[in-house]
TrEMBL record:
It is an enzyme of class 2 (transferase). SUPFAM superfamilies: PLP-dependent transferases. It comes from Lampropedia puyangensis. NCBIfam families: DapC_gpp (TIGR03538). This is Succinyldiaminopimelate transaminase. Its cofactor is pyridoxal 5'-phosphate. Its EC number is 2.6.1.17. Residues 32-396 form the Aminotransferase class I/classII large domain. GO terms for biological process: lysine biosynthetic process via diaminopimelate. It comes from the Bacteria. One of its GO terms (molecular function) is pyridoxal phosphate binding. PANTHER family: AMINO ACID AMINOTRANSFERASE (PTHR42832), L-GLUTAMINE--4-(METHYLSULFANYL)-2-OXOBUTANOATE AMINOTRANSFERASE (PTHR42832:SF3).
Amino acid sequence: MNPRLDRLNPYPFERLRQLFAEVQPNAHLRPISLGIGEPRHATPAFVLQAYQQALHSPTDGLASYPATAGTPALRQAFAKWLGQRYRVQVDALTQTLPVNGSREALFALTQTVVNPNQRDAIVVCPNPFYQIYEGAALLAGATPYFANSAPARNFAVDWDSVPADIWARTQLLFVCSPGNPTGAVMPLSEWEKLFALSDQYGFVIASDECYSEIYFQEEAPLGGLEAARQLGRHDWKNLVILTSLSKRSNVPGMRSGFVAGDASILKQFLLYRTYHGCAMAPPVQAASIAAWNDEAHVQENRDLYRQKFAEVTPILSEVLDVRLPDASFYLWAAIPASLGMSDTAFAKALYQEQAVTVLPGSYLAREAPAGNPGAGRIRMALVAETAECLEAARRIAAFVHQHN
């Protein structure tokens, strides 16, 4: 067996199952889960219709093998959306590729970028982080290095904490903006800093932007390609952005997204994917084109989240150190020190007494020189309908009041 598999850490939800293994939730309450970030708003009807029409089409159905690169129409839809959303112009056929969701692409891109012959290769990750970053780095033969986020700076990652000798060995840097779980959006000044480091040391920047369309301010979050354009970088050198329809269009089961950026990297990425067997099914391509070409449903989805967060956040902010994030559908809350509970103890007792599931923050981070930035925090995914999220918030508030 591949010995690198032994280096993988259990996924956060597996650790959560183990934490709850001997605990029974309050039988008098209906269980509510805020633990998993799985969109639960309704899938747009027109997306389902496009899928069904293609499924029964003699040319777009399941009767032939799809091309790994996708259809020209699909890639043109990517380019059109990037132009409308970020005001950037990309070559659809050389600077975009379809992927089966951002998770698959994050993993596969890492295998493409990391040189297995460099024994001391580093992949820099934000901390806390999406665990695919770590697993992809380990299975590529690299060592993850974690840069902590700073609560005092609205959870911005402290890139200055990364030593020069680490940057010198770095082959890939993961950026997540808006961030999971913090919801922080990276400003142009930080992009400028990372581009300068990439130019100096030659590493690739992979920008995970799957939460870009769920935001609470009037101004949409800055994206990697947009930041590069504003800084006069039009060739996207050593930059690849990854995005997805899962959160934007409420189709997590469709596993559809795309990558865009440096044409030389995407050429090699396509070669890797051709062998990896990652072609997107034609009906999914047809439904994806429909979704990327429509913004009305995205605005409606964003409005639902804005209303939900506006109602839920005030209830929780009375008992937890939490505020409205820049973007994403998570609340990243600190547990009051007066409770005398770790994040795991809090999650376990809350599940037992109030039948509400939250994810311990320490499960989403790693020990770093400055400690584990998730310790003492919980992540709450407000993905259910407003009424259910409000009920969960009231139960959390009651729990904190009872134990304070």
